[in-house]
């Protein structure tokens, strides 16, 4: 699905949150690879589950055509610096919910980009009959957990010793959900 672009200004940074288009595919492939190498908060290490330009073109096409998917990008001076996705499905028993994921280049942390991608996704979901948004977050990502709670997400469960990070230790994944009555 497609939303109207929205402009934000924070700490002298101007950025736009808008729906992804197929011409974003190459940039998205590069940005995702870079972000995966900058943080352990995501599921992948750099280069794992790589999605090339044609892969992103297909995802964007599918998400644009689906009423239960939303693919957003955050753009600074025509450069993508972060993105988010809400992915639903067509199964009747779970068609009321979507799974949310977000990532932002490290140099753009602290500008509210992740927050605004989340807010726009919530607004889209609430406006389009989506009743539940779910997400997974690493237990050590305290800022993200606080943000999600601020926007109505609750802890629904914990996957114990779910991820092994570079320090060799195992960490829990927190399952969170937000239900819109």
UniProtKB/TrEMBL annotation:
This is Protein N-acetyltransferase, RimJ/RimL family. One of its GO terms (molecular function) is acyltransferase activity, transferring groups other than amino-acyl groups. It comes from the Bacteria. Pfam families: Acetyltransf_1. The keyword Iron does not apply. InterPro entries: Acyl_CoA_acyltransferase, GNAT_dom. Keywords: Transferase. It comes from Thermoflavimicrobium dichotomicum.
